[in-house]
Amino acid sequence: MIKIDNSFISGIVKEAKRSARRRKNHNFHKVPEDTLQRMVHAMEPDTYVQPHKHENPDKREAFIILKGSVAVIEFDEKGVVMDYIIMNHESGNYGVDIQPGTWHTLICLETGSVVYEVKDGPYNPSDDKQFASWAPCEGDPDALKYNEQIIKYLKLK
Questions:
Q1: Is the domain defined by 6-153 classed in CATH 2.60.120.10?
Q2: pLDDT by residue for the chain (157 residues), tens digit each?
Q3: Within 13 Å, how many C-alpha atoms sit on residue 80's CB side?
Q4: For residue 116, what are the CA distances in angstroms to 1, 49, 80, 152, 155?
Q5: What are the boundaries of each domain within the chain?
Q6: What does the DSSP assignment read for 5-50?
Q7: Phi, psi dihedral angles at 101 (to 5 degrees)
Q8: Dihedral angle computed from the Cα positions of residues 29, 34, 38 and 44, in that order, rounded to the nearest 10 degrees
Q9: Do the Cβ atoms of 109 and 70 come closer than 8 Å?
Q10: 8 A C-beta contact, residue 43 and residue 125
């Protein structure tokens, strides 16, 4: 049994804060070929998750908030925001289920945020996700600016 308790969460949050990407994941599945991918992601507000979709092969994906506050945003094919949720225990918004082929991203809104993710496997880096050409790539100098534009557009700050 792996317990997802305060000690576990504190450890992964510390790793995320030390990480150059400002996030850290812990996989519960043992091998990439597992048909059910289960993981915990700790993230900081200055991380960037490039908008992407899971299609060909189609994969379902779900996120549940464990700590903090994280926005999940869905886009249309041109990058226009179609829907969003702020996952946060205090607001009563605990999670989201993303359908295959849906453009989406996560934006961390509070330091020390942690989400639990479940996604169809297997994991193959060559076809796991398709990245949006209308958004900056991870590592691009404008990536965090892109997050800020979405936060401003949605009037989250």
A1: yes
A2: 989 999 999 999 999 999 999 999 999 999 999 999 999 999 999 999 999 999 999 999 999 999 999 999 999 999 999 999 999 999 999 999 999 999 999 999 999 999 999 999 999 999 999 999 999 999 999 999 999 999 999 998 7
A3: 4
A4: 16, 15, 26, 26, 25
A5: 6-153
A6: SHHHHHHHHHHHHHSTTSEEEEE-SSSTT-SEEEEEEEE-TT----
A7: 75, 10
A8: 80
A9: yes
A10: no
Question: What is the token pair recorded at 117?
Answer: 């993710």
Model-level pTM? 0.95
CA distances from 72 to 1, 15, 16, 33, 140 (A): 29, 22, 19, 26, 21
Q: Which residues pair with 156 in a beta bridge?
A: none
